[in-house]
Amino acid sequence: MKILRFLGLPDAVRTLISFLAAVLILILSTFAVFTTQEATAKNMLPGDQTFSADAGTHWTLGFAKKVLTPDDVGKTTYYIAGYNSNNPAEGVLDDMYARAVYLDDRTGRGGVIFCAIDCVGLSRHDINEIRAFVIESKDIPALKSINICATHSHSAIDTQGLWGKSYFSDGKNKAFMQALKKKTAATIREAYQNRCDGRLYYGTADVSQKLADTRTPIDFNPLLTRIRFTPTDGGRSVYLVNMACHPELLGRGTKNISADFPAYMGKEIEAQTGGDFLFFNGAIGGQISSDRIDDVLKDPTLDCTAYMMQYGKEIGEIVCSITKEEELAPLINIRSQALSIPCTNTIFKLGKLIRVLDNDIEKQPFELQMNILTEISYMELGAKQLGLFLVPGEMYNELYSGNFLPADAAANGFAADYKPLCTMTDCEHSIVVGLCNDALGYIIPDNDFLNNEWLGFFDICKDQFGRTHYEETNSVGPDEARIILEAMDALIASVK
Known about the structure:
Helices cover 25% and strands 24% of the residues. It is α/β, with parallel strands linked by helices. Strands 1, 3, 4, 5, 6, 8, 9, 11 and 13 form a 9-stranded mixed beta sheet that branches. Strands 14, 15, 16, 17 and 19 form a 5-stranded mixed beta sheet that branches. Strands 2-10 form a two-stranded parallel sheet. Helix 2 crosses helix 9, helix 4 packs across helix 5 and helix 6 crosses helix 8.
């Protein structure tokens, strides 16, 4: 953990602290409550057993949104997530929302829910509670998949617990979290009630000049993808927007709750079209952010609020400017798979055992090894037109593109041998939807995954090229990327 390095402690002391943390984990784990993959998969609707090529007659879509921001900000303590610990919110710049879409291809195989929440991240444990509220209500018949994503705003209320008053103190407000879950479930049910018939289109725009990658290799998705629904009754259109960019443009000094630039992207969409929107982030690992992120973090003269609002407006203008579209045939195929990933991150383990983090973990009694229980999904929209990889964290884009560092440039001196996501689909276009159904930090290729040999996740180390490896301290472990990619490949093969 970086605080140990900042305190100036010698390596021997930090090594001792790391060892004592491992001992503490072993002791605490004896008394901790763990779970099983079967229990956590209860509310993970599996989707389609096999994928179909037979389209329906038309699309049906419903949209709803609800404000999540509490009305007592400034009176009750709510910690802002994403930057520094102990940063209580003093006001509200713009509201946090839950936005949901119900989508049905009218093939009779059931509908799908997509929900985006303005927050830094949600554990699968919390998402399963939201799913349970929806499923147990029985308000949505023949539902085959519920997918809930975080926009990853760094200025929203802490929903993971990592940004409390001090290190390893829970930053979540219990009443707020319970309200968030119930309001999100109500939003999903309302989206179903608001459904109407219409047509669905997708298009892309080049946003490469609006993005930056702050960790080698420089590799990010240059495209913004827009999915547009137009109701046949002339009602409000709905825009689903996917772009890989950290919503962190208010900077470390922010004291106000905000959904960051996606909120102002949405305001521009509404101003130009009168429509509604959802924002789904992409493969943002490797610190994919805006083109001026260095100024946001280092230039004290920059008006971050004005910049963030303008950036969102410009992205909204790009969304509205897309004219070349392809109509999507009314066909949804989706399949989900539960995963168990070895957690080697000592910080994650301690966070779970002292009840700061609430990710689901399984383990054998009296063993140090713990496994994070999570999930992935693969979805296709249209007749082999749009493929979506739904992943539970901040994935490095090279795991999608295949543009890995070569052996002589990687921290660990060997070449990555993954099968990248982009080669797993035969759809015309494909995207990554990140922080979907879980928030597991960074998903990093193993050839460039570097930890201090003795201090592990308690130290941000530098490699032989002088590059820092901060992201590893916020990752489940070096095996995570391989497990996710191999599972995705097997999942896609299983439905053909």
